[in-house]
Design goal:
- The chain is α+β, with helices and mostly antiparallel strands.
- It has helices at about 65-70, 85-99, and strands spanning about 35, 45-50, 60, 75-80.
- Helix 1 crosses helix 2 (about 85-99).
- It is elongated, with a radius of gyration of 24 Å.
Length: about 100
């Protein structure tokens, strides 16, 4: 409860009520995936796990569904140096079997 939600109660001493500060807002979760231009060829992209060293230095942050969508585009591939190919390729294949 915040101090804005409290109202004084007539005749009641609230000075003995224990108080504590609320923690700050939770940290923003890191995105799961990053898509970057492929270094080997113009117009192609590579999807990386957000923690992949190859994902550093820019790119577009994506959620999982967006990453799978990005892999469906022409010229896109999943990084094989991180979890991108191990996680996203099976998800992509699963979606193709059901659609």
């Amino acid at each position: 409860m915040t101090d804005r939600q409290l109202t004084p109660i007539a005749g009641v001493d609230l000075s003995g009520v224990p108080t504590r500060r609320l923690p700050g807002p939770p940290p923003r979760p890191a995105p799961g995936w990053v898509v970057r231009p492929a270094p080997e060829r113009r117009g192609r992209t590579v999807v990386h796990d957000a923690m992949c060293p190859h994902a550093a230095g820019g790119g577009t942050e994506l959620g999982t569904l967006e990453a799978v969508d990005a892999l469906m585009r022409d010229g896109a591939r999943a990084c094989t140096d991180c979890d991108a190919s191990a996680v996203l390729i099976p998800a992509l294949e699963l979606g193709q079997e059901n659609g």
